[in-house]
């Protein structure tokens, strides 16, 4: 009887070892497949499945994303605004980059709640002209067509940054062309194939005088 128990025990041990060996071989084969995947995220997901890696869920907070510098400048500008309407001018100095100018104006469309309107920012940073739209919530589009109704009408492709909170024209000459068109527009109402941009209106009443120091800094 004791001998039978010992034999059964030995057979069970051999069986478990064999299964473990087979499973180990399968895991190694699957792991080799994961290594052949070039894209980072799919490769990591493959290893997680093979080795049953527990995934820790981290709740996202409103401040989880690191906001772009332009978004921070535009938001701070609007918080510091002392004028009711139009473009609000800001100036900063840097030892390495020299003078910085940026003007901000919120969209004046009536359906936007206070503090929730997109902000148009015109700037000269590091001697480079820039035109950017800053959003209170991220947009989905990565590239949109934007038309500025000046003389002449300027139509450009603007691109979003990685966060979706920032939409910008090309820097330098494209930005200068956009701003020149804005200066001649009787009403600045943007037209676009993106619903978050189409119809955005901005008050340009004092723009021609407010923008002058920035124009001189960027030499146009």
Description:
The chain has six helices and ten strands. It is of the alpha+beta class and 220 residues long. It has two domains: 2-50; 69-218, Sandwich (Immunoglobulin-like). An eight-stranded antiparallel sheet has the order 1-2-3-4-7-6-5-9, with helices on both faces. The chain has a two-stranded antiparallel sheet with strand order 8-10. Strand 1 and strand 2 form a beta hairpin. Helix 1 runs antiparallel to helix 2. The radius of gyration is 29 Å and the shape is elongated. The model is unreliable at 2-20 and 55-64 (pLDDT under 50). Residues 1-20 form the signal peptide. Keywords: Signal. Pfam families: VasI. It comes from Photobacterium damselae. This is Type VI secretion system-associated protein TagO.
Give a brief description.
This protein has 220 residues and is of the alpha+beta class.
List the helices and strands and how they pair.
Layout: H1 2-35, H2 40-50, H3 69-79, E1 88-94, E2 98-106, E3 119-125, E4 128-134, E5 143-148, E6 154-160, E7 166-168, H4 173-184, E8 188-189, E9 191-192, E10 201-202, H5 207-210, H6 212-218
Antiparallel strand pairs: 1-2, 2-3, 3-4, 4-7, 5-6, 5-9, 6-7, 8-10
Broad structural category = alpha+beta
Q: Which sequence of SSEs, written as H and E, runs from N to C?
A: HHHEEEEEEEHEEEHH
CATH architecture of the largest domain: Sandwich
List the domain count as a whole number. Answer: 2
CATH topology of the largest domain: Immunoglobulin-like
Largest sheet: 8 strands, antiparallel
Summed up, the helix count is: 6
Number of distinct beta strands: 10
Our Rg estimate from Cα atoms comes to 29 Å
Spatial strand order of the main sheet: 1-2-3-4-7-6-5-9
Tell me the β content: 15-25%
């Amino acid at each position: 009887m004791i001998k039978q128990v010992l034999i059964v025990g030995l057979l069970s041990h051999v069986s478990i070892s064999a299964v473990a060996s087979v499973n180990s071989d399968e895991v190694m084969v699957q792991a080799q497949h994961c290594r052949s995947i070039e894209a980072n995220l799919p490769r990591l997901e493959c290893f997680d499945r093979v080795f049953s890696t527990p995934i820790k869920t981290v709740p996202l907070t409103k401040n989880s994303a690191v906001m772009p510098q332009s978004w921070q400048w535009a938001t701070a500008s609007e918080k510091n605004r002392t004028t009711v309407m139009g473009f609000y001018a800001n100036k900063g100095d840097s030892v390495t980059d020299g003078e910085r100018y940026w003007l901000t104006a919120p969209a004046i469309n009536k359906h936007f709640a206070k503090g929730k309107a997109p902000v148009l920012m015109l700037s000269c940073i590091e001697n480079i002209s820039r035109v950017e739209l800053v959003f209170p919530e991220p947009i989905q589009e990565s590239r949109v067509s934007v038309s500025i109704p000046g003389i002449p009408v300027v139509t450009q492709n603007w691109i979003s940054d990685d966060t979706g909170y920032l939409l910008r024209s090309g820097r330098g000459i494209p930005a200068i062309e956009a701003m020149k068109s804005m200066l001649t527009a009787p009403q600045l109402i943007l037209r676009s194939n993106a619903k978050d941009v189409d119809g955005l209106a901005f008050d340009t009443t004092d723009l021609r005088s407010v923008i002058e120091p920035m124009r001189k800094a960027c030499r146009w």
